[in-house]
Amino acid sequence: MKSKSKRQLKRGCKVVVWLIVIVISLFIINSLFIKNPNKELLEEIPSVNVSDDNNVANQKEWNLLLVNKWNKIPENYKPDLVEVAGGEKVDKRIYDPLMEMLEAAKVKNWGQMPMVVSGYRTNEKQKQLYEEKIKSYRNKGYSKEKAKEEAEKWVAVPGYSEHQLGFAVDINGATYDLYLWLQDNSYKYGFIFRYKGNKTDITGTAEEVWHYRYVGLEVATEIYEKDLCLEEYLELKK
Predict the structure, then answer these.
(1) Which of the 8 DSSP states describes residue 238?
(2) pLDDT, tens digit (0-9, with 9 covering 90-100), for 151-168
(3) Which of 150, 208, 222, 232 is catalytic?
């Protein structure tokens, strides 16, 4: 009986060894000849280019990109620009509604087409304006820190200006009536009166009756009807 049990045990050990060999062989074959399903999934996912991801042209709601003293322009941001009358440039997607608005505004500008005096700005241009504003306050006797504080109420720190997006414009007219018209009608063309005097604590910028920002017709209408600024609108939509 003992001899028989030993033979059975020996036979069982051989079976186990052979099973182990078969499993190891199958694993090696699978690694060499069978594609990794996870690799296939990864290959189906398009590679992400950092520059493209930050480029507003690839963002679903490009018109709502928030840039203010607390929110910097995305790295490697590159707008697609087109020139307007006078030589300034804007993002090409706002060109048509901008021209329509300026044409309609002639009714309150002595029949003249209002001028875009500042559109897209490079970082270098923004830096120049920023430093000039600080210098002007320094010349008035302000301390270095106070001059910087006052300057930033009017000119954004380089990298934090809407003008560097290409969606914002400063408009000049022949009469102040133009600005009153723009405040009441710009939303019809997708633009908002960006920096209202009663919203300075929220926007971080003093009132600028000449500064208008494109956000799209639907958004501009809601902002106008509810007397919001862009920061308030975006907060409500969270």
Answers:
(1) -
(2) 999 999 999 999 999 999
(3) 208
